[in-house]
Amino acid sequence: MSLKDKFNICCAAARRLLGVVAGLLALAGAAAEAGAQGALSYPYLDGAEAGFPAYRKVAERAARGYVMVTLLAKPDPATREGGGELHTGSGIVLNRDGYILTAAHIARGPEFAVRIRLADGRTLPAEVVKVSAKQELAVLRTAPLPEAEPLLFADSRTVKRGDPALALGSPRRVWGVVSVGRVRVPNIGERLDYGAWGFDNAIEIGMEVESGHSGGPVVNARGELIGMVAGYELGDTTKPQYRSPRIAYVVPANDIRKWLGW
Q1: What's the whole-model pTM score?
Q2: Which residue range forms the structural domain that includes residue 90?
Q3: Which residues contact 244 (CB under 8 A, 6 or more apart)?
Q4: What is the pLDDT of residues 129-154, one digit of tens each?
């Protein structure tokens, strides 16, 4: 079975069992946000962090360029009925003018409204300004973010197997969940398509992520952006005890930069 087949199968299973593998919906039964505002959490540590001694410092720096993203259905303009939260993902601050990168399957399109959450707990409205489903990328715009620290882009061509990597995301509507792992394949060499979305040149990383990580940053040991979380591989959900494969797929930084025109 090809990697694309595994990814597509995991997407179909996730729509039935966990929402959507690439983060189309937040996990059911989402936990309430806990802990202090702006506090990062590390629920997935499994020993990979031993090869990344500065991971907490890197995570704290990366968090200043990350936001939680919630997609909202707009109410009917005539009746004002309907609306409400659809799903939660993550975003990467592109600049202090309020432009944010996220996954296309999180942003969907301009017919939806968006809310972002910052490290200090504040929430701000945002709008979808650009979406490319075939590149799994979207741009949002919110109010200026003078306290944000946009992440520097790495040259993703230099990513090597075994390199340490760190992701930030918002699974279960919790801000600032950190995952640590290592690059497995710098470029899987085939396109990943799932539903209306997809992308090329995916970086495969051995780390635990969940649906709310989609759209969030993945950085290297220097805290530079190597890519954006797009999805993950789902394990065998038919077994009594589920075991995650701990594999994430990431849109590379160079493809993001090219799409942005940088």
Answers
A1: 0.85
A2: 66-141
A3: 208, 234, 235
A4: 999 999 999 999 999 999 999 999 99
